[in-house]
Structure formats: C-alpha cells, structure tokens
Specification:
about 575 residues; mainly alpha; about 75% helix; globular; cell membrane; MetI-like; Iron ABC transporter permease; transport; membrane
C-alpha cells in the first residue's frame, strides 16, 4: 500500500468520524425538537402562567398573596383532608392488596386469570364512574343505604381504595412472582413457620415494591378528582376539587393558582421520593421464577381475603348495572333509550350519545398525539450514547418528558384555561385543545410502556443491520418494530382508556356544545330528577364497559401496567 493510499484512507476515516460526531447530535436534536416544542407550549407555558398568576397578580412580584391564600383556615382543612384521606386509603389498599397479590401471583387455582382481570378492572374505570357507582351503592335507595355513609368521608375512602387496590396487586404481585423461592425454602427447612418465613424472608424482599406501590397509590389518592367531587359534595374537598370550585364557582383565579402551585411542588417532591424508593432489580443477580403452586392450608387467609376483595369490588359495579336497568321499580332499558335525549328540564345541551361520539373522537386524537410524541421521546432516550455528555442529555430529556406526571390533570387544565386564551395562542375555541391536554396526561404512560422495550434491544442488532447496508429507517423496521409493535398497541390502549375517562382537565376545557361523556355524567347527577339520574347510571355503564374492554385487550398483550410507575 502506497503512502498516498494510506493518506487517502486516513482522510476518509477522519471525515467519516467527524461526520458521525456531528450527525449524532443533529439526529438527537431532530428527534427531540418536536416533543420539546410541544411540551414547552402546552406544559411549561401553562405552568408558568400559574406561577405568574400566583406571584405576579398585579404586575409586580408579591409572594404575600400566595401566603395569604395558604394561610386561610379553609385551605388548611382542605390540605389536611387531602393528606389524611390519601394516607388512610393508601394504608387500607396495601393491607387489602397484599393477600390478593400473593394469591393471584404465587398460587394456582381454577379461574385465577379471571379473578386477576376482574380485580384490575377498577383501576381503568373513570373516576366519575367510580363516584356514581358508590353513590348508587351507599345512597338511601342503595343496598347499603342503611349504613348512612353517602356523602361521608368513609364513602370517599371506600372509593379511593376501590380505585387503587389494583395498583398494589399488580406492582407487589409482579415482585412476588419474581422472588427467588430458595431462601424461604431454606428457612422452612430450618424449622421456621410460614408466618416466620413471611416476616423474616419474604417481607424484607418485598419491602421496596410495597413502598413503591404505596407511593404511587398515595399520589393517585391525593390527586383523585372525580371520586372526591362526586362523593364529597360541598362538605368534603381535596386540593383538586378546591381548585375546581375556586375557578368555576367563585372565580378566585389567584387562590386557585396558589393551590395549584402548592400541589405542583408537593406532587413533584412525592414523585422524586417514589423514584428513590422504587425497586430497581439488580441485573447481576440471577432470579429463579417460582412456579405457581396449589394452595396449602396456610394459604386459606390469602384466598379468603381475595374472595372478600372480589365481592367488595363487584358490589359497586353490580349495583351500578342493576340501577341502570331499573325505571320506576321495574326492569327496563328506558335509561339507555333516554341517552338519545337531553334529559329532563334540558339538563344537557346535547344528547349523551353525541357526548359519547365526542369522547371517542377525542380519544382517537389524543391517542395518536400521545403515541407520536411518545415514540419520538422513546427513540430519543433509548439510543446508545457515545459520550458522557450525550448520556446526560438523554437522561435530562427522559426526566423532562416525565414532568406531566408530576402535575395533576386539574392543574394542567387550569393552566390551559389562563394561558391559551390570547393571540398568538388563542386555542380556547380550538377542538384540538381537549385532546392535546389528554395526550399530555397520557404521555408519561406511553413513554414508560415503550422505553423499557426499546432499551432492552441489543444495539448490536442495529449495528449488524447497518453493516449489511440497511439505512436508519430500514434498521428500525427490521430490528425495533417486530419487538415494539405489541407494547405500542398496549400503549395506544392505555392512552385511549385514559382519554375516555379523563375528567380533571376536560372539566375546565370542554365546550358546552361538545362535552365528553364524563363531563355529561357529572352534569346529569347535578340536575334533579329520576330520569337524569337514571341516564347518568346508564351512561356510566356504557363508559365503564368501553374502558374495560380496551384495558382487557391491553392485559392480553402482557405488558407492564400503570402500576409500574
């Protein structure tokens, strides 16, 4: 090889290296630019608007206004009730969920998969549907009306536990399923009783998963909007419902902004703590998955608790369905036929069937928006980093797109309300505003469903495809797509179900002539008349059935659930 040839090869290699070093940052920027812009306009701007409204109400920095709001006695009661109810509901959900997690993930018995799917249904139900179901169960005419719990704090706690116990079952059950059974078997061989094995071996191993599940459940309970709004009425109010009432009823936007800031700070801190406490599996430790076994005498407590929990979960849903089929004490489909009307005394501007069509159309838009952004984000943060700086950028982007998880839907909707109402971003009349808000609510869920799958693909497969002449797009189609298509469908199902049941942000943004189904249900139960209430029951059954079917399809795809957060 001549000196000129060596020099030419060295020059080409140097040019290729320089181009590669330039193209990777450009590709990273190209993938991230659209999601970053969307997040900036529809998340950072609304949050900044709330901060401005809270601290710069009259054009000058005045933190005293926020402190004045936070010093009100009613705000103290609202914050205390939020913390107290979330704490108690979390404790009860963990106590009820642990035996069911053991029975459904470590034992084998006929109908186990059916029971597991049934206990996961409550989590996918829209919060307003859960509220209506418990009102039907605990109301004066309900099966448990004699307990006089309707409109009490106990009813709210029951709704919160009903809604979140599935998170404990899924998160702790998955950890329990992956525990190495050999330490427990060794302890039993040395004479330890089943209770001692659980206390000294199993429980310490499960503690990270239990703490992680409890953190997530507390977050969901503290930001449960529809459950508290429908069951608490005017007597009980959480931070979320207080923001809603201050905005819609009292028009005190500054006080609502102050509470939104408080909630934003508290939820972000809670997410950081939950992230610290979340169980992270050690890749160096080999795990031996235990096969489910047939129940023994010591498992009677777990099976009995699971059966009791199944009855408690089925009771509100069954009462809701039965109530929707009763008109004036007789069995009838009249409530369902009435869904094509506007209710009595013109309770609605449009029929419920129109609201269902609006919800489905909105869910489709929110799904493709969240999937598009989620895919871009997932590809951005999972590509192999060639330098420490690139790795830090990808981690920063990953954390950035999780920020919507730290802001409740009510806070996000309120931020939209006060910031996107002036040119050049006057979107209040745009039909895309509601799906955009719902897409942001679903975005962290989509990202967290797809990222682990893409991150698990060996980068050498992409390199092999590239060495065989495949371009970047061809490599994605041949390497990534066969692995990610099923989780992608599941992520779409998650986003669709979240959009169908989303009530917090939509309650601020939905237009009177184009309401979604959750908004219509809440309006119906707020108007007097048996026909309006019967229509609310029927609409709740329709909404619950739709979301349940979607999530059961997702469950068949066998991907991580929302509880994995």
């Amino acid at each position: 090889m001549t000196a000129r040839t060596r020099w030419s090869n060295r020059t080409r290699w140097s040019s290729r290296t320089r181009w590669s070093s330039l193209s990777r940052p450009l590709a990273l920027a190209g993938l991230a630019v659209v999601p970053v812009l969307v997040l900036g306009v529809f998340f950072v701007l609304p949050v900044s608007g709330m901060l401005q409204l809270g601290f710069w109400a009259d054009g000058s920095f005045d933190p005293g206004a926020v402190l004045e709001v936070l010093g009100r006695p009613r705000v103290h009661r609202v914050v205390w009730f939020t913390v107290w109810s979330a704490s108690v509901a979390t404790a009860v959900a963990v106590l009820l969920g642990l035996p069911a997690a053991h029975a459904l993930h470590r034992l084998r018995f006929p109908g186990r998969d059916v029971v597991r799917a049934a206990l996961l249904v409550p989590f996918v139900l829209p919060t307003v549907v859960v509220g209506v179901a418990f009102r039907q169960l605990l109301g004066e005419a309900g099966p448990l009306g004699f307990l006089r719990l309707d409109g009490t704090a106990v009813a709210i706690l029951a709704g919160l536990v009903f809604f979140n116990v599935a998170v404990v079952i899924r998160v702790v059950g998955a950890a329990w399923e992956s525990l190495d059974p050999r330490p427990g078997e060794a302890a039993a061989a040395l004479g330890a009783s089943p209770a001692q094995v659980f206390r000294t071996v199993t429980l310490p191993a499960l503690r990270p998963a239990i703490v992680s599940a409890a953190s997530v459940v507390f977050l969901f309970c503290a930001t449960a909007f529809g459950v508290v709004l429908t069951l608490g009425g005017l007597r009980y109010s959480s931070v979320e419902t207080e923001i809603y009432l201050l905005t819609t009823n009292l028009l005190d936007l500054q006080a609502a902004a102050a509470l939104s800031i408080l909630q934003l700070v508290a939820v972000v801190v809670l997410l950081l703590v939950a992230g610290r406490l979340r169980a992270v599996p050690d890749p160096e430790v080999s795990r031996v998955l235990a096969r489910p076994r047939w129940p023994a005498r010591g498992d009677v407590w777990a099976l009995t608790s699971t059966l009791l929990l199944l009855v408690l979960v089925a009771a509100p849903i069954a009462t809701l369905v039965v109530g929707s089929l009763h008109v004036d004490g007789d069995w009838s489909l009249g409530n369902y036929r009435a869904l094509t009307t506007n209710g009595t005394h013109q309770a609605l501007l449009v029929p419920v069937t129109d609201a269902l069509v609006t919800s489905l159309r909105t869910a489709v838009d929110a799904t493709w928006m969240s999937l598009s952004m989620g895919l871009l984000v997932a590809f951005t943060v999972t590509r192999r980093s060639r330098s420490r700086a690139e790795r830090r950028v990808r981690r920063g982007l990953d954390g950035l797109f999780m920020l919507p998880l730290g802001v409740s839907a009510v806070t996000l909707g309120f931020g939209f309300l006060i910031t996107l109402d002036e040119p050049p971003l006057d979107l209040r009349s745009s039909p895309l505003l509601v799906p955009i808000a719902q897409a942001l609510v679903a975005l962290p869920l989509v990202v967290r469903t797809i990222v682990p799958v893409l991150a698990g693909i060996n980068d050498r497969q992409r390199q092999a495809a590239a060495s065989l002449g495949a371009g970047p797009l061809r490599a994605v189609l041949t390497v990534d797509l066969p692995v990610v298509w099923k989780p992608l469908l599941a992520a779409g199902g998650f986003a669709f179900a979240v959009s169908l049941g989303e009530f917090g942000a939509t309650s601020f943004l939905a237009r009177e002539e184009h309401p979604t189904l959750p908004v219509v249900i809440y309006r119906l139960i707020g108007h007097p008349g048996p026909m309006n209430y019967g229509m609310a029951l029927a609409a709740s059954v329709v909404l619950a059935a739709t979301t349940t079917v979607v999530m059961l399809v997702v469950e068949r795809l066998r991907v991580p659930s929302v509880g994995a957060f």
